Amino acid sequence: MLLDLVTSRRVVFVGGKGGVGKTSVAAALALGRAGAGARVLLVSTDPAHNLGHLWGRPVGDTPTRLAGPGDPAPGAAGYVDGLEIDPERTVDQHLTAVAATMRRLLPERMHQPAARHLELARQAPGTHESAVLERVAEAVELGEDSYDLVVFDTAPSGHTLRLLALPEQLTSWTEALLANRDRSDRFAAAVRGLGGGREETDRDAELRRVLVRRRDRFTRLREAVTDPARTGFVLVLTAEVLPIAETTEVHAKLTGMGVDVAALVANRRSPADAGALLARRRAQEDTHLARLRRQVPDVPLLDIPLLPGDLVGAEALGVLADLLGPTS
Ligand SMILES: Nc1ncnc2c1ncn2[C@@H]1O[C@H](COP(=O)(O)OP(=O)(O)O)[C@@H](O)[C@H]1O
Ligand SMILES: [Mg+2]
Q1: Which of 2, 66, 71, 321 is the most exposed place for a label (fewest CB within 10 A)?
Q2: How far is the CA of 145 from the centre of ligand 2 (A)?
Q3: Which CATH superfamily is domain 2-88+148-158+227-269+296-323 in?
Q4: pLDDT tens by residue, 214-245
Q5: In whole angstroms, how far apart are CA 321 and each of 48, 53, 191, 282?
Q6: Which ligand 1 atom lies nearest to the CA of residue 309?
């Protein structure tokens, strides 16, 4: 089942329309794998975070233990650490770091215009996303070093697709900057031939290192995300017209970007044996899912029933994890 489908992966993105159950499924997946002994990092990239609400404890911008040794997940040898990426704080840190680099690398007379430029950049479209992407890259790297699995609880689909398309764009943007640097390096060398300064060369070398590091980081992220052996996308939906249309569309886009869709999860399925109304709903859902099956024939599709209680706290998540289940 779902846990088996993702067992061999190191990175799982859980996506889908708002409200379909992404956070619940991501958390249950994390808990299920931890129950099988894995060290799991659960990362929310949705600006409307709710890992904290779900686990009934504060989760912040650094990894916090949610379940594991010393915690109410009995018998689990593995653990779940949670992390909510805070876009505001990320942008702040990002711009502070960029400002420091700029001050180091730019000649004095450029400091003020550069600072003004950065203040504008804070509000510019894409700044939040590229800062969040940097943190996604960082989380994937942290996962490689210290965890067996990183589960991303993502923002609603459109946002996440833009985020995943960014490494490509940022890489080519950095390439262009580097090509520009190449030209100005040659120019600087020519100037030095005419008696230009040594300081310029050091600055150029450092700026180049910063750009190369950033480019390499996004290249590595793109490689990780488009490697089906390492990364899978789980698309959560409810069996209704709009979520199904969106699932088909997102599946096509992800596949086009080279991202493997590991599973579709039809959440909150209505019971067939609990009265006429729900039985009719169930039949309607079956019709929708049959259409989804025709449109996306080759990806495993799993059902999760509508559960009676609130899905809050480790115990409720454990019930959901069991439904994702048998672990191997
Ligand atoms: N299988 C289910 N049965 C009952 N309630 C569910 C189920 N899955 C999710 N929910 C509830 O639906 C609401 C939305 O789920 P959530 O995981 O927060 O969605 P998303 O992260 O996609 O916005 C929550 O109140 C959650 O408890
Ligand atoms: Mg959510």
Answers
A1: 71
A2: 26
A3: P-loop containing nucleotide triphosphate hydrolases (3.40.50.300)
A4: 888 888 998 999 999 999 999 999 999 999 99
A5: 23, 18, 65, 23
A6: 4
